Amino acid sequence: MNRIIIEDIVCYAYHGVLPEEIKIGQEFRVSIELGVDFSGLNDDRIDQATDYRQAVKIVEEIMQGKPCRLLETLACRIADKLLSLPKVEETTVEVCKPNPPLPGVQGGVSVLINRRKQH
After folding, report:
1. Which domain holds residue 31?
2. How many domains are contained in the chain?
């Protein structure tokens, strides 16, 4: 399967379990991988391809949308919506909270999920 990879889409959003996470908000980083069918791309035309600007827009809309308590919920919402893009057969989504309110955690907390289109 061919891949389109978009790394570190930075969003400031209001998700989390703690009240201050929802009130104050924080930075999130989302990376996505799209498994795409590239067959038929002979003319170098955007209308024949998956426009990855749409994928970034989906991520931003979901991150700015209804608050979620769990990173898992965010990742699932993003993945499900990405599967609606033309030629996308599979997606992997990583949602990272780079500065979680956890003492001692320096590298952030991430959730990584994978979804495939059901035929």
Report:
1. 2-116
2. 1
pTM of the model: 0.92
Domain CATH number, residue 18: 3.30.1130.10
Q: Which of 57, 81, 97, 117 is catalytic?
A: 97
What SS3 state is found at 10?
A: strand
d(C-alpha 10, C-alpha 19), whole Å: 22
How are beta strands 88-97 and 26-36 bridged, if at all?
antiparallel
Q: What is the pLDDT of residues 41-65, one digit of tens each?
A: 777 777 778 889 999 999 999 999 9
Check: CB of residue 52 under 8 Å from CB of residue 34.
Answer: yes
Instruction: Tell me whether residue 97 is one of the annotated catalytic residues.
Output: yes
CB burial class (10 A; 0-12, 13-18, 19+) of residue 58? buried
